[in-house]
Amino acid sequence: MSAAEPKPVSMFDVARRAGVSHQTVSRVVNDAPMVAAATRAKVKAAIADLGYRPNRSARTLAGGTVRSVTVFTFDTSLYGTAETLRGIEDAASAAGFTVLVSVLDPEQTYTEGDILGRLSHDGAPAIVIAHDETTHRARRILRKAQPGAVVATGDDMLLAEPDADDWLVPLDDRLVAKRATKYLLSMGHRTVHYLAMPGKARRQDGWSEALVEAGIEPHEVVRSGWTIGSAAAAAAGLVADPEVTAIMCGNDDLAFGVLHAAHHAGRSIPGDLSVIGCDDSPMAAYHVPGLTTVDLDFRGVGRSAFELLRQRLEGGPKPRPAWRSPELIVRETSGPPRQRGPHPL
Amino acid sequence: MSAAEPKPVSMFDVARRAGVSHQTVSRVVNDAPMVAAATRAKVKAAIADLGYRPNRSARTLAGGTVRSVTVFTFDTSLYGTAETLRGIEDAASAAGFTVLVSVLDPEQTYTEGDILGRLSHDGAPAIVIAHDETTHRARRILRKAQPGAVVATGDDMLLAEPDADDWLVPLDDRLVAKRATKYLLSMGHRTVHYLAMPGKARRQDGWSEALVEAGIEPHEVVRSGWTIGSAAAAAAGLVADPEVTAIMCGNDDLAFGVLHAAHHAGRSIPGDLSVIGCDDSPMAAYHVPGLTTVDLDFRGVGRSAFELLRQRLEGGPKPRPAWRSPELIVRETSGPPRQRGPHPL
DNA sequence: ATGAAAGCGCTAACAC
DNA sequence: GTGTTAGCGCTTTCAT
């Protein structure tokens, strides 16, 4: 039943087989110069014959270049984080890096040791997808311990942190929310309500800024959890109120929850109520009615975060940001408010 | 700008500080017996003072117990894989294991070396979330190379493989699809069409079995990609055909695509057309109309996969499967076919 | 262009 | 109980 696992082949085995020293093998493996073409060929043949693969632990321990990234994130099943992770993975595997994922529980409080202990070793490169309190804390701990090997993605507020340019791939959450709110206002809504997800305070800032600039006093924010269900529950009061004609939501999932609640409250979309999401998740286009939202290129952000990290690690020119800028996508859940009162004309 | 990264503290530093040998520190760190309480306390104090954290690479290299798992999967943004991954992560981090994620591109063909080279070292424990050709191939390669350290999740067809009991956490895709199809048949549909996603042949098997047992000749399967959009496109012909009264879909996302296409084709749900999904993703309950689907406990499967791996690694009693069995969840997209023909009464 | 020696931080095996 | 000695597989530095 339990097959014997053959002893793995090491650099020395290859060396013996090729009739050279293990050091020469190392040179070949690492594409170092100063190896005769003939020797190189012999070694490569031996590597192929034996099926040799370098041991990453040994390489890391010996102080070789680290080719792995640890990604700290708080929920791999949310659209935004999943896509960011995908972007990181794409870029990382193209560059021959291994990706380690370390999931942080928002409910838990981690000590410095907890966070740093998740790295394979001190100084291991890391990317933090920072979107809530716990991940922000992890970002601070990691940046403090090893500033040269940590980059993060997060909202534009982080731009205020020291040297943010060097380590941040920012998403302008404030601007995104502001633009969406302004659009709703431009359709003629008297005000826009905001359904907030945990963290992500900047989206709320953008929303209230847009209102204030238009001379409107923002209503109190309604708070939701991360799930569609919690959004549906949180929005129950909002959708029941005929005075509410426009709701902007922290993300698409929350918007779907609101839409569900609105439907069950008998409100017609967008006649009675405009709803706008954020993220442009795949469902947004295929929901009926189509969800108006803002396209956010999380995958591009992930790729950029990796490139930035690599530049920090290996030097070289600062990579230029390579993600699409956010774009409002108007579909069918938004429109002008229906005329009310006794004189529709 | 670039702060000096302090030299990491090693076991020897702790040993010196505590006035013991590095070996004693190792014993304390690994909770080995044979350490005097007083010594243990001294060492723990030194560890805390110095902020010492063990180096995983060194530990792995020195042959200590490996506390990491590499998860091979093909798309972390799909609901099923994302949830399975979450389950693995939950169980793994509770057990003090690090999770590494290795994403395989379905479009690519990997050599044995490519796959094995993604492990941190030969023999490193791995879990394969096997749901398509590429991941199945990875599973075979890994199982062959190191049978003692690889488990997989996948459909029940794998039960036919040698020793499957020892390494497989099966999801009975055949039964799930069969049950859903039977339910549709029981509502009075003359036949049920199937919209397939790539791979996952067993769901198709279950569907056709149910039909054959009912004496119905299955129609040709319609094939879709993984995205909602591809499902909507693939289902265009199906939803345009008034003879089609029931469609079972490979998963919920495909079902949403079908629903979208059906809506645009002007068909009413479930009057003209019943649609059933698979997975019970969070959206299913909040879609309007609510999607009839089958609840699959991917998170439980992930947890079980990890527990099984751990048992393989460390011995001990075989863990009993700890995931909810699939359950049909009837919501609003399914019902009896509307009476047709000239004499409704 | 190649080899030899040293050591990364840790655990295992054996001493005391 | 605790310390000592050897490596694990690799990359460095320094010879040659």
Automatic annotation (TrEMBL), chains A, B:
Keyword Thylakoid: no
Domain of life according to the entry: Bacteria
HTH lacI-type domain: residues covered: 9-63
Keywords of this entry: DNA-binding, Transcription, Transcription regulation
Signal peptide annotation: none
GO molecular function terms listed in the Swiss-Prot or TrEMBL record: DNA binding
Stretches for region Disordered: 315-345
One Pfam family this sequence matches: LacI
Upper classification of the organism: Bacteria, Bacillati, Actinomycetota, Actinomycetes, Glycomycetales
Keyword Transcription attributed: yes
Protein name: LacI family DNA-binding transcriptional regulator
